[in-house]
Amino acid sequence: MTSSLSVAANLPPDDRKHLAIQTLARTEPLSRVAARARVSRQFLYRQKSKADAALDQAFAPAQDDPAVLFYLPVTAAWLNQLVLCLILICHSSYRGVIRLLHDLFDTTASLGDIHNLLKAAAGQAALINAAQDLSPIRVGLHDEIFQGNRPVLAGVDARSTYCYLLSEAEQRDGDTWGVHLLDAQAQGFNPDYTIADAGTGSRAGQRAALGEVPCHGDVFHIQHQCESLANRLTRIAQGAATRRQQLEQRMTEAKRKGRGNTLSQALTKARKAETTALHLAQEVKALTGWLERDILALAGPCLKDRRELFDFIVAELKQRERLDSARIRPVRIALERQRENLLGFARVLDDQLAEIAQRFQVPEYHVRAVCLLQRKPKTSGSYWQRREHLNRQLGWKFHDVLTAVVDAMDETYRSSSLVENLNGRLRCYFFLRRELGQGYLDLLRFFLNHRSFARSERPERVGKSPTELMTGKPHPHWLELLGFERFRRSPIPA
Length: 494
What we know:
- Helices cover 63% and strands 6% of the residues.
- By secondary structure, it is of the alpha/beta class.
- It folds into four domains: 4-58, Orthogonal Bundle (Arc Repressor Mutant, subunit A); 129-218 and 415-481, Nucleotidyltransferase, domain 5; 219-342; 348-410, no CATH class.
- The protein has a five-stranded mixed β-sheet, sandwiched between helices.
- A hairpin with a 5-residue loop joins β2 (150-157) and β3 (163-168).
- The radius of gyration is 36 Å and the shape is elongated.
- The model has no long low-confidence stretch (mean pLDDT 89).
């Protein structure tokens, strides 16, 4: 005879549901229902409990948003995408990812699982990076960033912000730079010019790999150096003024006691030191300000005039070296040695303005005047007065010339600050790891190059990735490029 236990175990779901309904209805004793179905009363109580729970959930008080937005099939591939997004988008640590999977999805993962997933993704990312055509890059920006004491060589396209070089290295000498630039050259990298700081390694490597391609100087670094000098001399002058004030107070006290002559010589020296320091600070600040606003500014005089003004500032700094050689001399020497590199952008701008003048058949000095107009704020009356004057001189050609000049200025680059911007974005990832590894850098480079900009000061970049900006062609989502199938929401059936 079949036992009630075996019968209950083999009951299909529909029969269990009907038994639960009969138990809830209480139209007849449970013992009769159990006997007819050949199950125990304990089994019926369990079905009744399940039905009670289902009804309680169905008729529970309405929440703020009871509707189900969408159903998500949580597969192993989807969890792998989640892990990648947590690390690359949310900058999560490995242990943070493990905790989230445990708390939110009741799923366990190990450090090794996450490491293997990232290693596989990095391998695919490296292949995509190596297959990218770099021939559209016209201006390359080079610099070195550091993780601890380890240099990371970086190269960024000035127009699209595409990162074509991100490599950890033991050295940052010419041979190391040359090898990496040769690898980029094999992918089509052949810029019109590059921009880098005064580092000898990057410049030697470029000469070896790219030959006669010019390497312009980075204006940002020398401006920062000059600003630091001016600020330092200002603080010294303030310190000299404070010492003079303190001596004057002491002199007042000494005079009351009839001993004023004991501090007179020291006070005279303090006043002379204050005057010298104050004049030096003011003069150096004026010279460095002139350098920044007139000579190294994008909208400025022609290259010939810039050179003359540059040499004048260097000569003026040299005359003042005797007053503070330790601080002024390094800046003066840096300016003297880097003149042609720092003014490389002016040569490019001059060529473009000459081309605009020839294209529209207008005098070149009018085109230069339109360029200089961009120095004035558009909210000022002088801007609109000067603009109206140029409009009358150029007539119907004015707006076309203005558009061409603004475009030319936008395409003329003076610094490698985009590498500093890249450094800031990478810091959010670097601080999580003591050792980087080339695979991790390949993955970061791939992700940053294929993730679209949510916002930007340049409207043309919004909604596009650096790769799309460089190539002018759309590409699949970065997850799809790594071989994943992205989740697509489907409508909920009524």
